[in-house]
Write a structure and sequence with these properties.
By secondary structure, the protein is an alpha/beta fold. It has 11 helices and 13 strands.
Length: about 350
């Protein structure tokens, strides 16, 4: 259970309210007896105000995820223990679901999603790269234009979709509305959905149910913590038990409609972060590569498929720079654009 006691009129709650209006604020860290910490444009900053709270004597190990509202702002809350001490991370959620063009969702990706009658859509990236915001924006954009039943499985519910809408959206929170994720996902296939938002695919059972749903005429949206399109395909298939991986690979080749990987870079001249993307769409060449298992050729497909709406991260950076963005970092990190790319690609860590 969530143990956070944060009265709205407490000094820390009022400080969070004050900071939340600042562009670039994303996370708050609360540890009893320690200064409030927060992230501004990805950089960790320690505040002068300390957080105080009476801590229960008996603490149960493990983590707990939930959501909360404070001063009109909505937060995703993750509770953990660190060396026997409680700590909470509060992710600040946008007060409104942004339009796709506001957060620079690539138009080919949005077009593929809006036009799809079935298939699997994978939105990928590291924690904090904006996957949940991208999905919410795309789903709302579709829900405003179609009459469908959308079922979401969330842990916890982050964005509340506004109404009324032409579509019916059933938001289900794990732990509150449902206990067994796999069972709930299988049951969803009998609840006449058009679009199913799976959330993160963490195991083989979820991956196989997602494939089954996509194969049987549903639009399925899910996330993976992967950094590239080729890595996404391989990670997805590694989740499947070995004796069924061949069938899963063939199904994935036929049902995969989009892999959208995203990262956030910082532009010091604008004092804000901006996204870059890798976009893989379903074409015959992509389908055949996945079916054959020659995944390294997906990178080549990304380089040559820009006329079809695909691109890799390097091309995305070029497009952003043409729009006036520059990938750099302010002091104290001082990373160059090349160092940032190497770091994000996992080649080497920048020297601080």
């Amino acid at each position: 259970m969530r143990l956070l006691d944060l009265p709205a009129d407490s000094p820390v709650a009022l400080r969070i309210k004050e900071l939340a209006v600042t562009d670039g604020i994303s996370d708050f860290y609360l540890t009893p007896g320690e200064p409030l910490a927060y992230r501004h444009n990805g950089e960790l900053i320690f505040d002068s105000l300390a957080f105080s709270m009476k801590v229960p004597a008996d603490l149960e190990p493990g983590c707990h995820d939930s959501a909360m509202e404070l001063h009109g702002y909505r937060f995703r809350v993750s509770q953990m223990l660190t060396r026997g001490r409680l700590r909470w991370v509060l992710r600040l959620l946008p007060s409104r679901i942004p339009e796709p063009d506001t957060i620079q969702v690539p138009p080919p990706s949005l077009k593929a999603f809006l036009e799809a009658r079935n298939g699997l859509f994978l939105i990928c990236g590291a924690t904090g790269s904006g996957k949940s915001t991208t999905i919410a924006s795309m789903v709302l954009h579709r829900a405003q234009r179609r009459r469908e039943h959308v079922i979401t499985f969330e842990d916890p519910i982050e964005f509340i979709y506004p109404g009324p809408l032409p579509s019916l959206i059933s938001q289900r929170e794990m732990g509150g509305d449902e206990q067994d994720f796999a069972k709930a996902l299988r049951s969803a296939l009998r609840q006449a959905p058009d679009v199913i938002i799976v959330g993160e695919i963490r195991d083989g059972e979820t991956a196989e149910i997602a494939l089954q749903a996509a194969e049987t005429g549903h639009v399925v949206v899910a996330t993976l913590h992967t950094s590239s399109a080729s890595q996404t395909v391989q990670r997805f298939l590694k989740l499947i038990p070995g004796e069924r991986v061949d069938n899963a690979q063939a199904t994935l080749a036929d049902t995969l409609r989009l892999i959208l990987c995203q990262r956030l870079l910082f532009d010091a001249t604008r004092d804000k972060r901006f996204p870059i993307h890798e976009v893989l769409l379903q074409y015959d060449g992509v389908t055949n590569i996945i079916r054959r298992g020659d995944f390294k050729k997906l990178d080549q497909e990304l380089e040559t498929g820009w006329k079809r709406g695909m691109n890799n991260f390097d091309k995305s950076i070029e497009l952003r720079e043409a729009d006036g963005f520059h990938s750099n970092r302010p002091e104290p990190t001082g990373f160059s654009a090349e160092e940032v790319r190497d770091y994000l690609d996992g080649n080497k860590a920048p020297v601080v």
